[in-house]
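Lab notebook: predicted structure, single chain.

Context: the supervisor wants predicted structures on file for every construct in the current expression panel, including those that have not yet been purified. This is the next one on the list. No modifications to the sequence; it matches the entry in the shared construct table.
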Amino acid sequence: MKGKSIFSPAEAERIRELLRKLPRAARDDQKRLRDFLRNDTGFYISDFTRSNAGFTEADFDSLLERGTIKIV
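Prediction complete. Output recorded below exactly as produced.
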């Protein structure tokens, strides 16, 4: 695992915000958004999925429900 699995409430909200923007963003903007995810919050999508289908806010919430990641 490259990133974190425990986040503050503020980090979790920032992750959700960035994940909402990803699908609508242009390719170059998507790269920048993923960089923000990694550098600002320590969240690496690749730590939780290998799918090319796209990682969404719902996927993030599913990780929370399963206890894979935590908000403290």
